[in-house]
């Protein structure tokens, strides 16, 4: 197992990241999602609650250049599930689930972001509550060694989460130009403490210059009730 704080702080630019796992007390499903930015357009954002969901919003609308890849709903909440992604594929997954289809079927209709030369991966996760517990899945859609016409799709299932453990996936391996995509399986990480400790640990581990916003959610696996936290650098 890798220490979550050390893993996040090991690079100045992991990009956007998803963390899903089970709380140390075994009672909560844990979700974390953060965004970072190098350009003015990427940094000009905040997270805002929208009912049970989460959306990105321009901090200064006058400075918004291209909303296509920066304004979206990272989190959608369904009756017994929560979807978290780094783009508008959140709604693709939601629509497929509501039609009785699967997380995997939804993402097989999508590919990486059209932002050459980086071709930023699309990362996605879903938490599904059932029978007093939960399972989760993660996915990454990325280009095949930077080739625009060749996509790779990876899916990871975690049907029996372990207390105090989770998995972390992010868009970029490290900073660079072009920025190299994440490689390998989602990283097994520890999850400690309550939602406030978890939120503070993740936020403080992110690079100060590049971090933009963080969202966390702890879901009671027996009742489905949840608690959210939002941290925005822009205030």
Fraction of residues in helix: 10-25%
- Rounded mean pLDDT is 97
Q: Tell me, briefly, the overall form.
A: globular
Radius of gyration: 16 Å
Count of helix runs: 5
Distance between the termini: 35 Å
The string of secondary-structure elements, in order, is HEEHEEEEHHEEEEEHEE
Task: Name the CATH class.
Answer: Alpha Beta
Count the E strands.
13
- Which fold does the CATH topology refer to? Glutamine Phosphoribosylpyrophosphate, subunit 1, domain 1
The largest beta-sheet arranges its strands as 11-10-1-2-12-13
Beta strand %: 35-45%
Category by helix and strand content:
alpha+beta
Specify the CATH architecture. Answer: 4-Layer Sandwich
Low-confidence stretches: none
What would you say this structure looks like, in words?
This protein has helices spanning 4-9, 40-43, 89-98, 103-107, 195-205; strands spanning 17-22, 28-36, 45-50, 53-58, 75-77, 81-85, 122-130, 133-144, 147-158, 165-170, 187-190, 211-220, 226-232. It has a 6-stranded antiparallel sheet, covered by helices on one side. A 5-stranded antiparallel sheet has the order 5-6-7-8-9. Strands 3-4 form a two-stranded antiparallel sheet. The chain has a single domain (4-232), classed as Glutamine Phosphoribosylpyrophosphate, subunit 1, domain 1 (4-Layer Sandwich). Strand 12 and strand 13 (226-232) form a beta hairpin. With 235 residues, the protein is α+β, with helices and mostly antiparallel strands. The radius of gyration is 16 Å and the shape is globular. The chain starts with a helix and ends with a strand.
